[in-house]
Write a structure and sequence with these properties.
single chain, alpha+beta, 2 domains
Length: 400
């Protein structure tokens, strides 16, 4: 007697008003970056190929970017995953050796695409900063992201604690929701040394962690009209000029003989206001630069005192405001996490050729920018549209 089979799952395609509005936005974002014929023309213009080639360059670029969204395999790397995606797109067949050679020649194409995509993204109107951040023209966060490489690349990208390591140094814009600057190096390069060169943006707020702690940099940014909030190192011992109490009353800090007092001595001698939250006026020193008055606040968090160095005026921002604003720095960590998890940026340990490594990294960055463009379009659409879900039918219900 044959067992009775359950009726299979049948989903009736339904076109909703929301789907109709989403489709053109998603299509436009993909077409702007992944038009195979246009990409093929860019490759030709850049001289990536001299003479006929087995593969279609435009489809190859699309394959590399789209494969960055796929789940990694245990036995194959980024090269073979991109090749498989290329075959699925219907590109002219060729061997693996020809595919690898093609991928290396596409390096200038990926560089040009990232440059164009970045300019296009930054040309859009930035999101309006809200709340306490509305006082700034933008919030800019420098940070670094490192991941391990094949040992064969140790001569090119020297690591720290590992033979080979690749590091991206970036400046993230909260207003733009993306990077404004990007530089690369080996993992052994310190974050502070790898900070991309750029002019300070007047009126912008910079948030950086202990890896960028440099009084000279702080002073240069402040004198250029930028605002800064950064963590203060444990060993920092600046001159303290005054302490401000909970009511805002100023207490000048000076030794009995009229000389300046540094932070450690002021704490040890109980010269500061006896409060869990401290708000100090300090004086920074850096060789070759005139001294600068700045602000240091101490705010307890989970039983640990957190010290911050800032230019934010106490007349507008309390010590707790400073600590809360610094937490915005977490946005760049989430951006890097998206790179690693969603676009396979750290899945490059099988690549032993530095050019192939750059192609894979650039493809991941382009995939990330593509996903952000789609997300941005849907965000704007969501502001105008009320989401209504289609009714659930019997065909869409699973048996108990």
């Amino acid at each position: 007697m044959k067992p009775q089979l359950r009726r299979g799952l049948v989903l009736t395609p339904m076109v909703t008003p929301l789907a109709e509005r989403l489709a053109p936005h998603i299509d436009a974002a993909f077409r702007a970056m992944l038009d195979p014929d246009r990409l093929d023309a860019i490759a030709e213009d850049l001289g990536a190929f001299k003479g006929p080639t087995v593969h279609h360059a435009g489809l190859a670029v699309c394959a590399w970017i789209l494969s960055a969204f796929e789940r990694g395999t245990d036995t194959e790397g980024r090269q073979l995953d991109a090749h498989r995606t290329y075959d699925q797109l219907g590109g002219p067949r060729g061997g693996r050796t020809a595919w690898r050679e093609l991928s290396l020649r596409l390096q200038p194409v990926f560089r040009e695409l990232l440059s164009r995509a970045t300019r296009r993204w930054l040309a859009r109107a930035p999101a309006a900063l809200r709340g306490r951040l509305s006082a700034f023209t933008d919030v800019l966060i420098p940070d670094g992201c490192a991941f391990k490489l094949a040992n064969a690349l140790s001569g090119v990208y020297k690591g720290t604690g590992t033979a080979a390591e690749f590091k991206l140094h970036a400046i993230y814009s909260v207003g733009q929701g993306s990077l404004t600057r990007l530089a690369t190096s080996g993992g052994a390069v310190h974050d502070s040394d790898g900070l991309p060169d750029d002019e300070w943006v007047a009126g912008a707020l910079y948030l950086w962690d202990l890896g960028y702690n440099d009084y000279g940099r702080f002073m240069d940014a402040a004198r250029a009209g930028a605002h800064i909030v950064q963590r203060l190192k444990d060993k920092a011992n600046p001159i303290v000029r005054a302490s401000y109490g909970p009511t805002g009353k100023r207490r000048e800090i000076v030794a009995d003989d009229g000389t300046a007092v540094r932070l450690n001595a002021a704490c040890d001698l109980l010269m500061l206001h006896q409060s869990r939250v401290l708000d100090l006026e300090i004086e920074l020193e850096s060789e070759g630069r005139p001294n600068l008055l700045a602000r240091v606040v101490c705010v307890p968090c989970n039983g640990v005192d957190r010290w911050y160095l800032t230019t934010l005026p106490r007349e507008i921002f309390t010590a707790h405001d400073v600590a809360e604003i610094y937490r915005v720095r977490w946005e760049v960590e989430l951006y890097f996490r998206h790179w690693r998890g969603a676009t396979r940026l750290d899945e490059v340990r099988r690549l032993s050729d530095p050019v192939a490594l750059e192609v894979a990294v650039l493809a991941s960055l382009l995939a990330s920018m593509l996903s952000h463009e789609v997300h941005d379009a849907l965000d704007h659409l969501g502001e105008e549209t009320t989401l209504t879900l289609p009714p659930v039918t019997d065909e869409a219900a699973f048996p108990p």
